[in-house]
Amino acid sequence: MKFISWNIDSLNAAISGTSERSELSRQVLNKIREHNPEVIALQETKLPSDGPGKKHLEFFRNKFPDYKIVWNSSVEPARKSYAGTMFLYKNDLTPSVTFPQIGAPSTMDLEGRMITLEFAHFYLTQVYTPNAGENLNRLRERQIWDMKYADYLVELDNKKPVMATGDFNVAHREIDLAHPDRNRHTAGFTDEERQGFINLLAKGFTDTFRYLHGDVTGVYTWWSQRAKTSKINNSGWRIDYWLVSERIAEKVIKSEMIDSGPRQDHTPILLEIDWTTS
Questions:
Q1: Of 90, 83, 93, 81, residue with least CA distance to 60
Q2: Residue 251, helix vs strand vs coil
Q3: Domains and CATH numbers, the chain
Q4: Most buried residue among 16, 69, 86, 177 by CB atoms closer than 10 A?
Q5: Cα(266)–Cα(278) distance, rounded to whole angstroms?
Q6: What does the DSSP 8-state code read for residue 129?
Q7: Separation CA 240–CA 269 (nearest Å)
């Protein structure tokens, strides 16, 4: 089975925007479609609380006719048209869908950050992890989120194997970003966030990219839009992941990035798994 995850940074902009960046986003969606995955996970959809509108649904009917869609949007008192997640899955699949709330602080549970699909033999869950904030003003809340999220994955893992994907908003190791020295106290690379990710893996989960590719360097999933040359110079971060329960890591065939061309921000990540492998 093949799965793709992507932080799209505004579904509306990607579907109906007229800017050059919107066109680049549509090209990435076309590339995702060409891979023909069983499931597509999208983060940071930024849809309103009532979900996709007519133009969004028409887009999916035309571009992804073989898929059903489910979504989770930010609702009041959380910010409007903020965060948000979505799954597209093939019409012949029949997962049970849940929208977990993990007891996170502030409005985090209301920001549409998680969706879980339960299949007969595994869970597939996606997350858009809260950012610690430009001035780390949300770091303490982020630490609580990390603990609650880890507990949630363990709860799933106790029932059946788990695949967890999304924008985790943390570069785990120094080799997961181009300039670790200058980002020691930057959101996404604080000691606290990195420790939260270490604690998560220690509970029985595998970073599939490192599992397959070892300590390879210079491979990232995000490049800042603020620096016009960040992607040209490959000044990036690896903050998007496919994690799996340790006991199924050997079934993973591929875990890699999909080339998003000149578009900066996130690039899609692909996981391929062979459930027949013993």
A1: 90
A2: helix
A3: 2-273 (3.60.10.10)
A4: 86
A5: 34
A6: P
A7: 7
Write down the pLDDT at residue 278: 67
* Rounded distance between C-alpha atoms, residue 140 and residue 145, angstroms: 9
Q: What is the mean pLDDT of residues 57-68?
A: 95
Catalytically annotated residues: 128, 167
179 touches 258 (CB < 8 A): no
Query: Residues of 142-174 as b/e, b for ≥16 C-beta within 10 angstroms?
Result: bbbbbebbbebbeebbeeebbbbbbbbbbbbee
Q: Is the peptide bond before 77 cis (omega within 30 degrees of 0)?
A: yes
Quick: pLDDT tens for 192-205: 999 999 999 999 99
Amino acid identity for residue 130 in this structure: P
pTM score, whole prediction: 0.97
Q: With residue 90 as reference, give the H or E element that holds it.
A: strand 85-90
- pLDDT > 70 fraction of the chain, expressed in percent and rounded: 100
